[in-house]
């Protein structure tokens, strides 16, 4: 299914919003709860699946539901359609500080792999599924585990990353990356896990036991602040008083109580 052609504009710096312009009957598909605001005339409906295969039948929909459960996402996706006349806009907000990355899938040979919580929204027609990493070591020790999100299509997709985003164009080179700092990469890139130096470096170097190795020719997107790292820093600096986390002005304490002891 050919993707709908949508225009967009991104606002903000650290907590960004992407505003998507839809022509009549055009649709954008988003993760549940991502919508920020929309024009009158935009209708929305929660559906099982991304709508890229309208004739897949009930078994196909159930299979897609199972795949989304494996990634920890909601089993439903929300479809926003311009049901009025003239152009209408709908916007989607980033879930935590970082950047929204617009991806023109035609420029990436129609395939992108990304971490399982990176996808934000895409033009209807984009196939949003999962992929299992090839190597056992990658599954056990990679920040993304066995499961990655796989986007296939020829339209616009939008993914979100924490902190500053770096785009790397590899031309046969190899880079080594902290596993949590990978946002996504194109289908031509080989992804594997290697030990982080000798035993002393692994246990006392502060970089973790393993690093991701990306090599080949293609595009890689990296983030400076993975969400898990941000949570760890907040919890580490929230002092405990009487069994609960408190801080000046009680703001930090409330954050600590929200996250609990996890």
Q: What would your notes on this structure say?
A:
- It is a single chain.
- The chain has 262 residues and is α+β, with helices and mostly antiparallel strands.
- It folds into two domains: 7-163 and 187-206, Mitochondrial biogenesis AIM24 (Double-stranded beta-helix, 4-Layer Sandwich), CATH 3.60.160.10; 229-259, no CATH class.
- It contains five helices and 19 strands.
- Strands 9, 11, 12, 14, 15, 16 and 17 form a seven-stranded antiparallel sheet that branches. It has a six-stranded antiparallel sheet with strand order 5-6-3-10-13-8, with no helix packed on it.
- A hairpin with a 5-residue loop joins strand 1 and strand 2 (17-22).
- Residues 245-255 and 258-262 have low confidence and may be disordered.
């Amino acid at each position: 299914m050919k993707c709908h052609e949508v225009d967009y504009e991104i606002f903000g710096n650290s907590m960004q919003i992407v505003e998507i312009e839809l022509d009549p009957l055009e649709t954008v598909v988003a993760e549940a709860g991502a919508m920020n605001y929309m024009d009158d005339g935009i209708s929305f409906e929660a559906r099982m699946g991304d709508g890229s295969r309208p004739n897949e039948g009930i078994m196909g929909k159930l299979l897609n539901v199972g795949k989304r459960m494996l990634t920890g996402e909601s089993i439903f996706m929300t479809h926003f359609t311009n049901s009025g006349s003239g152009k209408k806009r709908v916007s989607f907000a980033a879930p935590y500080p970082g950047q929204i990355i617009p991806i023109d899938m035609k420029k990436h040979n129609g395939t992108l792999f990304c971490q399982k919580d990176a996808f934000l929204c895409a033009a209807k027609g984009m196939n949003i599924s999962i992929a299992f990493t090839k190597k056992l070591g990658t599954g056990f020790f990679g920040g993304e585990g066995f499961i990655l999100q796989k986007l296939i299509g020829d339209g616009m997709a939008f993914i979100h990353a924490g902190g500053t985003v770096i785009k790397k164009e590899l031309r046969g080179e190899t880079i080594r990356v902290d596993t949590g700092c990978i946002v996504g990469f194109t289908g031509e890139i080989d992804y594997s896990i290697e030990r982080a130096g000798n035993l002393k470096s692994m246990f006392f170097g502060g970089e973790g036991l393993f690093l991701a190795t990306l090599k080949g020719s293609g595009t890689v997107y990296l983030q400076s602040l993975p969400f898990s790292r941000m949570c760890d820093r907040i919890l580490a600096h929230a002092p405990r008083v009487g069994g609960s986390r408190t801080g000046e002005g009680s703001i930090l304490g409330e954050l600590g109580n929200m996250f609990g002891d996890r």
